[in-house]
Design brief:
About 55% of the residues lie in helices and about 10% in strands. The longest helix is centred in the last third of the chain and has 24 residues, at about 260-285. α2 (about 55-60) links the parallel β2 and β3. By secondary structure, the chain is α/β, with parallel strands linked by helices. It folds into two domains: about 10-115 and about 195-309, Rossmann fold, CATH 3.40.50; about 125-185, Orthogonal Bundle (Histone, subunit A), CATH 1.10.20.140. The relative contact order is 0.17.
Length: about 300
Amino acid sequence: MPSRKETFKIIVICGPTGTGKTGAAIQVAQSIGACIVSADSMQVYRFMDIGTAKPNREEQDAVAHYMIDVVNPDDDFNAQRYVTLADRIIADLQGRNIPVLVVGGTGLYIRALRYGLFSSPKIDPSIRTALRDEAMKNGLGAIYEKLKRIDPESAAILHPNDRQRILRALEVSLSSGRPYSSFVMAHGFHEERYRVRMIGLFRNRENLYHRIDRRVDSMLESGFQAEVEGLLNRGYSPALPSMQALGYRHLVDCIEGRLSWDEAVRTLKRDTRRYAKRQMTWFNREKDIIWIDADRTASLNDAVREFLC
């Protein structure tokens, strides 16, 4: 993909989980004839619908969605693969003069699409193997504590259960002798690959946390446990990065008897609120993001139309 193309405009609608990004994006997409490219690291997985808050069939019929149901839960997927696939979709849509909305809460994917990824140093295979062996022997918690000692800046923005990214940050740090975060900072993220209008949706904390709690209840009422049981019955290991994601690991622990139902629900709501807080921290670092109250759809439409003119 060449460096920034003046004709390649994309609108990003982002923000923490529970703000109502899907509904707002569909409303905007219908008003301007756009398609939606998901920027959600979990919605790429097939068979994982309820726990990822994937747009339902009616929503996907209303507006064409891309980057949903791309891979199976045991397939490797990362930011680089996301950018490669999303670039192709965006080029095709813009070649047909269809506006593009990139919608989601995975800040790393959005940043990678916007600026590209830094060139990673060569990874020592013995370090990679040793880290994975250590994680299996001592648990992910011990590996996360190691990252906190070696690269506290990376640890601060990663969830303690994000096995894939914790191991990635460690293997880069140990192979290069430099903290992973230093490579991110050196990249700079200055030259855009697209012309972008960044719009963040927000709600006040009390409202957002209430919506998160209600959404968890709704997911459980809609059959989230049966979805997780179905994944286990298909043979997908609880150790997979996809199965360690928010919600899935909680219900696996409940199904396998390590958590009671009430404790699984309580910790899932708590961890989702914490995740939303980390998302806000990430997006607040974006220099040119326009924050819009999620209930003020008129302001959202105005910001999109002004950018496309």
